[in-house]
Amino acid sequence: MEGFLELAPATALLPLISFIVILAFGRQLPMQGAIPGVVATFISLVLSVVVFIVVGQGYTYNEDIYTWVAGDEVIELSFGILIDPLSSLMLVIVALIAFLVHLFSVGYMNLDEGHAERGGLPRYYASLGLFTFSMLAFVLANNLLMAFIFFELVGLCSYLLIGFWFTDKAPPSAAKKAFLVTRFGDYFFLIGTVAVLATFGTAAFAGSDSFPVIAQDIIAGDISETAIETFGFEASTWFTIVGLLILGGVVGKSAQFPLHTWLPDAMEGPTPVSALIHAATMVAAGVYLVARMFGFYAISPTALAIIAFVGAFTALFAATMGVVKDDIKQVLAYSTISQYGYIMLGLGVGGFVAGTFHLMNHAFFKALLFLGAGSVIVMTHHQQDMWKLGGLKDRAPITYWTFLAGALALAGIIPFSGFWSKDEILYDALAVGLETPILLVAYAMALLAVFFTGFYTFRMVMLTFHGEPRSEYAESPDPVGWQIQLPLVVLGVLAVVAGFVNMVPVEKLTGLEIAYLYQWLDQAWLEQPIPETAAGTYSALVAQELPSADPNVLLPALIALALALGGALLAYRLYSDPEPQRHVDELGSVGHVVEHNYYQDEFQVWLAQGVTARVARVADIFDQGVIDGLVNASSSISLFSSEHLKRIQTGVVTNYATLLLIGFLLILLGFGIYGGWF
Amino acid sequence: MWIEALVLATLLAAGIVFLAPDRVAPRLAFVLSLIPLVGSLWMFLNFDGSGNALREGSTIAFQNRVEWFQLGDLYTLNWHVGLDGISMPLVVLSTILTTLAIVSAWTPIEERQSQFYGLMLFLEAALIGVFVALDFFVWFVFWEAVLIPMYLLIGIWGGPRRKYAAIKFFVYTNIASLVMFIGFVALVFGLGDAVTTFDLTDVAQALTETEPDAVGWMDASTLKAAAFAALFIGFAVKVPVVPFHTWLPDAHVEAPSPVSVLLAGVLLKMGTYALLRFNFTMLADQAMRFAEIIAAVAVISVIYGALLALAQRDLKRIVAYSSVSSMGYVILGLMALTIYGVGGATFQMLSHGLISGLLFMIVGVIYHETHTRMVSDISGLATQMPITVGAFVAGGFAYMGLPLMSGFAAEFFVFLGSFGSPHLPASHIVTPMAMFGIVIVAGYLLWAMQQTLFGEFDLATDYNPREAQLHDLAPIAVLLALIIILGVAPEVAFEMIRDATAPIIPGGDM
Amino acid sequence: MTGIPIEYYVLLSAGVFCIGLFGILTRENALMFLMSVELMLNAANINLVAFALLHGTLTGQVFALFVMALAAAEVAIGIGIILVLNRNFGSVNVTDAATMRW
């Protein structure tokens, strides 16, 4: 059984092969490249399930497989595979959603006339293949450098796919923005990666000489601080700095405040791409990275608190913006930002399992919601404005019921998956907050966001599916094929049941041992555990820095549920008319600010165009004027002086004789003075 | 003797092409350029050197050292050539880029072809000579010989302001050569009896063993510092380093694209190569003395060069200024004086040679199809020439340092080497400052790509751009392949480079 | 040495030389130039001969002979130049022949 783990690289390499095949033969392939993509991701899915099962048998894997730079005299840089419960879980999630999205794409891109006739499908499937490869390789990475490398490649694929319809004006601009904003985050990540290598001499995530373990030993005092280079800082301070630098990349990729602005724009890409990249996987890469190296963050309470606050603030901030959007994909985009805020909060308060749990659930239900939205878009001839939809409930039942399941999960209504994970995050936040009161602020923000989440989710459901159709396309939607319906059903089922794997409140109330995800991540049952990545190790580490109380499990859960239901009911009341009214205007100037996303975009555009571009122009003027001016001035001076000096050359022989004489006399004088004749 | 054969074969090829009729010159030049290409690749594969050529205990590959003639009573001049792990990859870079540049010139160069290709091959011979020479005078002759064909190539086949650009290039770099020459000769004279040749290996050895005597009013320490400064300024012009960079954009904009390929791809590397050989190998102690200034110059080059690129509206100027920025990383890596730093800087020379060559070729193809290089004149090119545009996007991302392409490997090595460098002042502050260049470079390249490649097709000039021909695309494809190979498996070249840079690291750590 | 002291010769020579120099600097006629040059050469000859007498050697006198021969050759060439000058510029005024300048 163990040998199967060596197949893990194949899960990543198969989509790469599909990328190369499509790139080389694109147009000649049947279905414009869809088939290699679907087949490759299907095999990847099967392999990843096999890997998952083998891990379930108690095996893990942590080996370098390719040496990038050999380390005879220098730090060795290599690529390797780390398979532990966390990565095997993520592997299955990514492979599953990648496969479903490939399948969905056949219905969305190939079979939809409007999309198919715009062409470029081989490019689409090639990019999807490259993306799947990069994401799977990122998940499998056993060191920070490899993680960074594939993190960046994922960003490239995102750029290619957001800008897929490049003849329009908006997609290329959105693609540029997405890459640039995440690049800004990655700049800090790169510094962090370099700093980790320079500090520890290794970037490995797991193993007895991995950097989180060394850092833990130094904090615990088992290793002297002088064993590593801390650039004149206290070891703990330096670890916090490095952790926060890496967090920069996380904030960029997972669209956390203030680098979240690219994600709503990224909705310019095809909808399956939004589902795959901008909801379920790439955006998850950021928080997955935090979970992957949680052992490093767990020793730094400052870094944890910052993660928690960024997450909680983002959760609330994005949720308020989601409330006023008209485009169904925009609502989902803001909800994505908000939900990743929750995951960050969960990780930030030390809830490694809670964060991972929500990451998993969110991947399922958000992919479901995006694909559902894609299904709506296909059946209504590319109508995304919710005010022009409506009444699809009876006309598209499969889409409706699956979408509803996703919406209930998103809103956090019991017993759908989102409820269990969100509740766990909130519970962890409260537990820590009771001991460290400042974190209660984060808890309060997250709790408030629950209300908004319930509201915008059901506003979206009501406007899209209930009431009367508000456009001719919503009146008579086209039917959609099984390629679209199958992924919806699969994800719909998962959105309902995924939450049952970790029902912590039920466990605490009844004493049944049913927190399976915790057990899975805790590795206690493994034959070859990797203790430094086990959930139990993490919670022990966090407990040293951030103690937690043990509040009642029922009350917080009921509060959160009541808020979510309250939001949902409010939305129902406001928008259940057959001809719903806009209520944004009633918010007055606040609504105006929120509709403009708090002028975040304007601010960043100003930073780019108003500040940077202007500085560049000044630099250019300085360069042309002063620096090149000096160069040209030296030539001008030469020309100018020669222009005048040459006048001595009169052509009159008498003048030459005079000059000769004067020169001779001067030399004589010079010798005279030098020789001391005078 | 293989090196002499390589240089002579290239010179001979240049002569043959020069005399050939225009009709056959393009194809003939390509075929003849394969000789040095294959030769250098053969040498690369059979490379048996180890260590750094200027340090004791090294094995110099393909070495040939003979006494040439006496200079005065004291000095002997040698003919000394050879290769180590630093120069070998650069020779291969020169031969590969020349061949590819020759192919890429088939379309744009329509006049006086035999002279053009003859000069290209002559340039190649001189470039190889610069990298193989291990005696100062041999080296200097080749160094200066490079200027002649480049001057003519810009001055004859260039754009509207070609005369201005060619003269600026020639005079600027020539004055720099003079400064550098004086610096080196003063240093050798200062060493007095310790060296009796201008052989670089002897001079380097003598500098490790003895201190120079006082010359004139300068004591030993001042002499070394002055020599270091003169050499640094002399090479800084060639690199170019801010504030000596202004000849570069003018030369690039006026030069025909194939010439730009060699100018950016190889000529700039002469400067950094010489910096590595002279300033950071022979006079590393002085480099540490000026560490603050050099680090500042490196950071300013990176950031200021990138900002200037951001302000440009001409595609060629954008790439030209971004070269200034990229060369700043090389200076940073050299100043780090760690294996990753110096090795990464050398790797960046290779990588930047390939990537900037690629971008100049693509810009050349676009210019040939559209007759404009202004970003604002073009939009939506992707619908017209999809393959070229695909290559442009790939090249752009390579320039931005996308992982698994050579640019990332090079920059990462440099950052890794400089972040923990014991020789760089405040290395953990300076390095992140320079690293910010990777954000700005993404900014201007993404902006330029969005404007020119995407959106509705529109062109301000009266041309109908179509997909480039196969022989225009072939060199682009080869370069892309090399970039990816070096990015995925940097050890192909980095192993050799590391071996050659390790001996010059002071203290030998990291 | 008896008779006239060397200073007188030197003074005479300097005087003749200065007359020649003055001629060159002030006259515009090429023929006058030629004559002035002859005067300067002869001033040098006076010196050569005088110092030869002073030192009792023949070297100076031999040199004086050389200078005379040289002067003769110079006149031959000089007259030729003046003739060409006259043909090209229509005068023998040296300020007219000022085309060899910037």
Please give a quick description of this structure.
The complex is a heterotrimer of chains A (678), B (510) and C (102). Chain B has 510 residues and is mainly α.
Q: Would you write up a description of this structure?
A:
The complex is a heterotrimer of chains A (678), B (510) and C (102). Chain A has helices at 8-25, 34-56, 85-110, 113-116, 121-140, 144-162, 170-200, 211-220, 235-253, 262-265, 271-280, 282-292, 294-297, 301-322, 328-348, 352-379, 392-395, 397-411, 417-435, 438-465, 472-475, 482-497, 504-510, 516-522, 535-545, 554-575, 588-595, 600-645, 653-675, and strands spanning 61-69, 77-83. Chain A contains 29 helices and 2 strands. The longest helix of chain A has 46 residues, at 600-645. The mean pLDDT of chain A is 87. Chain A is mainly alpha-helical and 678 residues long. Chain A starts with 7 loop residues before the first helix and ends with a helix. The relative contact order of chain A is 0.08. In chain A, 71% of the residues lie in helices and 2% in strands. In chain A, helix 1 (8-25) runs antiparallel to helix 2 and helix 14 runs parallel beside helix 20. Chain B has 510 residues and is mostly helical. Chain B is built from 20 helices and 4 strands. In chain B, strands 1-2 form a two-stranded antiparallel ribbon. By secondary structure, chain C is an all-alpha fold. Chain C has helices spanning 6-26, 30-55, 59-89. The longest helix of chain C is centred in the last third of the chain and has 31 residues, at 59-89. The radius of gyration of chain C is 17 Å and the shape is elongated. The termini of chain C are far apart. Chain A binds chain C through residues 646-647, 649-654, 657-658, 661, and chain C through 21, 24-26, 28, 33, 94-95, 97-102.
Mean pLDDT metric of chain B: 91
Q: Can you give the helix content of chain B as a percent range?
A: over 70%
Uncertain segments of chain B are none
Unreliable sequence segments of chain C: none
- Say how many strands of chain B there are: 4
- End-to-end Cα distance of chain B, whole Å, is 36 Å
Biggest sheet features of chain B: 2 strands, antiparallel
**What is the gyration radius of chain C calculated from CA atoms?**
17 Å
Shape of chain B: globular
Question: SSE string of chain B, helix = H, strand = E?
Answer: HHEEHHHHHHHHHHHHEHHHHEHH
Percentage of residues in DSSP E strands of chain B: under 5%
